[in-house]
Amino acid sequence: MSFKPANNIQDLQYFGEFGGVNPSISDSSTYTFLSAKTMFDTFEGNADGCYLYSRHSSPSNLYLGEALAAMEGTETANVTASGMGAITPVIMQLCGAGDHVVSSRTIYGGTYAFLKNFAPRLNITTSFVDITKLDIVEAEITKNTKVLYCESVSNPLLEVADIEGLANLAKKHNLKLVVDNTFSPLSISPAKLGADVVIHSLTKFINGSSDTVGGVVCGTQDFINELRSVNDGACMLLGSTMDSLRASSILKNLRTLHIRMQQHSHNASYLAEKFEKLGLKTVYPGLTSHPSHQLFKNMMNKQYGFGGMLTIDVGSLDKANALMELMQEKNLGYLAVSLGFYKTLFSAPGTSTSSEIPEDEQEEMGLSDGLIRFSIGLDADIERTYNMMNQCMKEVGIL
User: Quick one: pLDDT at residue 287?
Assistant: First the structure.
């Protein structure tokens, strides 16, 4: 693939109001007009470059949106106050009462809870399927289906979606393919593989410093205009607006994403290979033992690697908790949810980020009590990290 996402980010140049190398932050909730007609035109969406009210848009948010659209190769993007603040408006914009979604069964717990528990209040139903089996996906499509929903790399089981295959299904049945690309920014470019809408939780790798919550929807100009419509736009009317100061902060961090993703991937790949050699049940897309290793390889922008997420199964929740507590004590990372931080983060998803999924369904999809999800950090000496983790595993009786 010739698409170069980091180049597209690098080639955007914004000057600050006084010649600053960072764009000025628009620290205003509302904007003045020199004429009443311009205000009317802006309300109607016809005054390009004019700002009305920050829930609609602001210069800072548009700078970040433009950079993220460049990264994903879409026409434009809309930033939101959180990842869920991006996911829920997209579903509600594309679906109405009586409509149906076909979704991957292994997705972020919040997304699962929205589709399973909340969307039915709006008379929107969802079928959860093994997204890796295209025939099963197609069998669930009905005349009311509007959306195919998946994650490029699923949370927490690290299943890999065949985005091109799903895009072909979406086109065949006149559906929209919505892909959450939070786990694999730069590594995978879903829009280039046929996805209609690409979503990120900016909270994770893209921001990278675990100090900001944010989201983005990347798509066509027409779709983003629909989301922003003052009359019936889900982003506009549900109000999950990103703050300008946060948008400015994330834009600065986005500039180093390519360097960070390379290091996250390098470190995760090193640890995954070592863990697997120890005989631990290890899941990482970069391992040849991963069932979708070749698929990921065929889709990826190779220079960014297979990402920073891996899982190991240590057999029981007690052992998982003992290991994570000891690793935190030894300063190897934090027992915390989320991902994409400069330090390694680890959690047992069955009792944390996927706890919204009922136990019987967790079992069916292969999410066991002893599973630990790692978001591998930017450690400079990954061999030292591995040796210390190995020692911790011995101390708690895993090895």
Answer: 98
